[in-house]
Amino acid sequence: MIATALTTVVLAVLAIGAALAAWQSRRWLAGRPATVGVVAGLRALPGRYLVDVHHVVGRTPFNARFHALVAGGFLAALVLLVAMGVAIGGSRILWLLLAVVLAVMLVGALMVRHRRRVLRPRELSQGRFSRLPLSLLGFSGSLLLVALDQSLGGVMPEALALALIAVAGVALADLVWGVWKGPLKHAVHGALHLAFHPRPARFHDGKGRDTGLKPLPLAPMGDNEPVALGVERPVDFAWNRLLGFDACVQCGRCETACPAYAAGLPLNPKKLVQDLVVAMDGQASDAAYAGNPHPGRGVGKAHGGAALPLIGADAMIHPDTLWSCTTCRACVQECPMMIEHVDAVVDLRRFQTLELGATPGKAAVMLEELRATDNPGGRALARRWDWAADLSLPRLPAGGSCDTLLWVGDGAFDLRVQRSLRALVLLLRRAGVEFAVLGDEELDCGDVARRLGDEATFQSLATRNVATLNARRLNRIVTADPHALHTLRNEYPAFGGNWTIVHHTALLLELITAGALTVTKPVGRSVTFHDPCYLGRYNGEIEAPRVLLDAIGVERREMLRSGLRSSCCGGGGGAPLTDVSGERRIPDVRMEHARETGASMVAVACPNCALMLEGVVGPRPEVAEIAELVLAATETAR
Ligand code: SF4
Ligand code: SF4
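A: This is the predicted complex of the input protein with iron/sulfur cluster.
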């Protein structure tokens, strides 16, 4: 009787949950079609869950432990309950096993309660999330009493046992409701998102570091009606992206990592994802959101709907929020549900820029200059080489060949960047590297245009740069600009460009290791290294700059946020051009991290980082580009 009642309650609640989930999936299917490898995705799911998700969750071991206890105990309990349903009645052994797994789950539930009620991290959402410990404790605690009693022969009055089963049923119903609308969404939506992920190559079983920004078809294909470019309404996202947003468990890890949020700009990536989730419903409002809002913006004012524009002063997402993002991917790196915030931001920007021409601030002027002159400053391309007038840089003509092509990037117009480029050229000469440059035929790589949503200008630049490079034979391309490196390495292949691209830190390390450069004057200063987002997080290169710094004799100190979890300088994604104001500037926050190390110098390896961090006023560590340090350390070499 007890076993039958228990199994009936559990299966009935789960069946209702499954029906709700099916109804929920209609929301995703309203999105645009996407090509998804269903079988391959489902096959890859266990690996992605056990390796990639656990890699993120494991960064906070307490959380990893309670997840294992709660989820492991709960799933084992479900299996045993079904087994008991099949065996109609169960045996004392089965009841004892059930008691053991429920006890495991209860320990995990107590840890969840400790985290939510005692530790109370400020990034966690409250609201319906606050009920989670109660539901977990209600389910595991009540059934544990019943299971223990049954394993001992059933001395408890039957009415009490049925009452406990009813309590467990209510708690389970709340958990199932939480799968649909609350704290347990990640259990089902998260698993589906892992299987049908829009950027599968990001996982350990993928083929490498791809870019989520696939080329946008700019003209209608065949007889098709023209489709709006970018995303205007929730339904303009592909269905598996909508599914991805719905996997968000409101843990706030992205919020904690976001440099824009830290600087008080009106962007909280968690709220941004929740805005996208809520907007999928008709007559949407953010009034029920119970986490930290976008800084400076109250909750309850945003409205929208599945077929309504997402961006607008009173819409679900304010334009300032959209343009605050530096595309640094810190949120993507931290998200345990593998949500792709940056691709969503760029898709939204594409509509604003391409369809509405609503790019704000100096960004609009910059894009116009870029379209007219192929460089963002609107200057003649020949002026980019003024700094090298005395260096007689060899130009590589069409049909020519060289070992190493130096891609200088559009930073070469800037006096500060020219200093470090000069250092790099002197080092290449000193080491005997056979190199050349493209001269006036090197156009802007298109990185900023693409991040600002101007896919048309990006594609125009990419196509012409690929044609220029493919008309020459070269062994490798070296650049000191991680944005150019990422674009050439990961985004140009879609336009027919496939070359070996190396960052100058990797090349300089190679030259020192091979003995082509000799350290004669070790730097001997305390130095902290600021990882460029597009080198570290986007391309996984965090070791070479550090080994290089060690090789030239610095006393290296690490910032709290470093490597793949580094914080942005504020210079990416066109953010300096859209220039949304916050409580502080992002580079000021980053320099604060550097100051905390006590180092006398910050080493940078990106033109944007050099410009952003050198712009910080007040007492601060000196800023030096790594090539400049290497040049000084190897000054008197052969
Ligand atoms: S990419 Fe960077 S700036 Fe943009 S939302 Fe994510 S963490 Fe914030
Ligand atoms: S987007 Fe990811 S990291 Fe941010 S709150 Fe949601 S699940 Fe957590």
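The CA atoms of residues 92 and 153 lie 7 Å apart. The first strand starts at residue 284 and ends at 285.
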